[in-house]
Design goal:
The protein is of the alpha+beta class and 214 residues long. The protein has 4 helices and 6 strands.
């Protein structure tokens, strides 16, 4: 349609066109803003997760390091004890050779001598006695009871002993310990030819005989 001038009269706009025209310019910035917010939240969350994972990994690494250090320390102590026991021997040099006496031999003789004294109920502390009782009950290491509660340190021909004993109730502690000391010194020196420099005695417990009255 023309109105006498050159050109064409534009067709009237419909409601749909108005809606599209009004929504298109604003939709782009709104969607971008929301996308930006989501990306920011995702980034923050990822940062929090990464921080927590890093902290957890640090705690695990620290615990593993502590465990390794404790294991190394325990292994070192065990190895040191083994070396000490291997070196803990007495040597008696004679004209035609050398006699080597292991510490277990001295401990066993000292234990047997100590048990012969009246008033001595048992040797060893609480843990050693329980462990020995369990081993004896299941039939293991019954012969090890003789040197239970006895520890010896050997240097050449000299021997220093530590004994842990349980005395029977009613006996005088000082009297029992002096008899134990004399008996152990006599047995070790006469049977093994060693010089006992000291015998230290710990009274760990008192045994009370609770037998029923007749």
């Amino acid at each position: 349609m023309t109105d006498g001038t050159q050109g064409t009269v534009p067709a009237p706009r419909t409601d749909a066109d108005a809606v599209v025209a009004s929504s298109e310019p604003d939709a782009g910035p709104s969607v971008l803003a929301k996308a930006g917010d989501i990306a920011e939240k995702v980034g923050d969350r990822a940062g929090e997760v990464a921080e927590k994972v890093g902290d957890r990994a640090g705690e695990v690494a620290e615990r593993v390091g502590d465990a390794v250090e404790r294991a190394a320390t325990a292994t070192g102590r065990f190895a040191s004890d083994v070396v000490d026991r291997l070196r803990n021997t007495a040597e008696i040099t004679e004209e035609r050779g050398t006699t080597t006496i292991a510490n277990e031999v001295v401990e066993k003789i000292a234990g047997i001598a100590a048990r012969e004294v009246d008033g001595v109920h048992d040797l060893g502390g609480d843990t050693a006695r329980v462990f020995a009782a369990v081993k004896e009950r299941i039939g293991l290491g019954e012969a090890d009871n003789e040197n239970k509660g006895v520890r010896v340190r050997l240097t050449g021909r000299a021997a220093a002993l530590d004994l842990t004993i349980v005395i029977v109730y009613g006996y005088v502690v000082y009297t029992v310990t002096e008899k134990v000391r004399a008996q152990v010194i006599s047995a070790v020196e006469s049977l093994l030819g060693l010089e006992v420099t000291e015998v230290n005695i710990i009274v760990d417990d008192v045994h009370v005989d609770r037998r029923p009255a007749a």
